[in-house]
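User: Sorry, folds how?
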Amino acid sequence: MSVLVLLIDHERIGRDRLASQLQEAGFLVAEADDGHRGQAMALQVNPQLIVIDLLLPGIDGLTVLQRLRRDQRTSRTPILVLTALSSLDDKVRGFTSGADDYVTKPYAPEEVLARVKALLRGRATTPQLVRAPEVLSYGPLTLIPERYEALWHGLPVRLTRTEFELLHCLLQRHGQVVPWEVLLREIWGYGPDSDVECIRTHIRHLRGKLEHDRHRPAYIKTIYGTGYCLDLPADPAHQPAVGRDRLGLVGEALNPADSVRAAPPLRWDQRSRRREA
């Protein structure tokens, strides 16, 4: 069965070039040249993957992306952002809005094709995760793979598909250091030389939803130069003090290269709805 990829991009030349390469690789391709058509086609043709530009006429790409993530028909569809917006803030907004991957223009078509295949490989492994009967739980965190649901202190947390898979990977190795290359391989299908910025961005989002202070994380800890460690209290009612871990595992936001604008602590019911800086 052929895989259908939906391209939403107003630049005809670039869209035609990418469509041709995808078709040569065996994909079926549907195309839309503005936000209105793109959103409508995504809901009508049920693509297995969506490639979207953010600079779209009609409805801008970020708005389309957010709407697709809110719709059950496309909430789990892999989405690759392909855009000329290249700043770190632009990338953070893209990932915050629900992108699974982000590529800036100009781009090498071979790279985009490789990333499309990687996202689809990740999706191909999803049924194994969905069919898993077990409910993963430790301390305050419970993950229900069958429904892609997460509970934090008994309350539901809204996670994107990638955030869920990232948290699932860390929880399976609770208390262990999980190297970046393991996360890149298991979630994105990338090699060890790939850019780890996509991991950092999703980790920031998870911290914003789970931590008391995402800038001084107590649970999802960075092991500099290596990866991450999920360190939850065994007692679900335990409320640890905010600060550096006594073992020397430091929160990512303390690294100046990874810093983001500080924000006041959020109440629980605000965290999943806040648009991060």
User: Anything to note?
Assistant: Residues 253 and 259 are 5 Å apart (CA to CA).
